[in-house]
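User: I'm preparing a small set of examples for a lab meeting where we compare how different chains pack in three dimensions. I only have the primary sequence for this one, and I'd like the structure in token form so I can line it up with the others. Please keep the answer compact; I'll paste it straight into my notes.
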Amino acid sequence: MIGSKRLETLDTILDRLRTEIRRNGLKNSKQREEILTVLYKSGTHLSPEEITNKIRTTDKNASISSVYRILSFLEKSGFITALEADKSGRRYEIAAKEHHDHIICLDCGDIIEFVDPQIESLQIKIAQEFGAKLISHDMRLFVKCAKCQMS
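Assistant: Understood. Below is the structure token output for the 151-residue chain.
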């Protein structure tokens, strides 16, 4: 199955962010909300540079260094997850999605999300065969996509 379902609306994520900011004694930051909004609305995996460029359409003062700092905070707080897609660096997505795995084209960088119940079941079975309980996993398949094979 391709894609993964969102578990929260943007409004509930932003409400949780505001609560987290208050809990940490931080002042509210419009940029934190903008970054979450950009990631949520994109529905894909964005680099810090892509996020900065999207924010700059409404906030000319957005700096890449502040975006990196905010991404670090949002990741540590569990609002976003990072994906090491390739040599080009980390890409980010909203964490409020059902578990999914990734297919990553090493040529063009396209990322496809997928869920396969058979793979999920097999991973649990393999962990059990080693006397372990599966807590988490991250599957990334690195490919040359059909589009890149044509060129």
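A couple of notes for your slides: The chain has a mean pLDDT of 88. Residues 10-94 form a domain with the Arc Repressor Mutant, subunit A fold (CATH 1.10.10.10).

User: Perfect, thanks.
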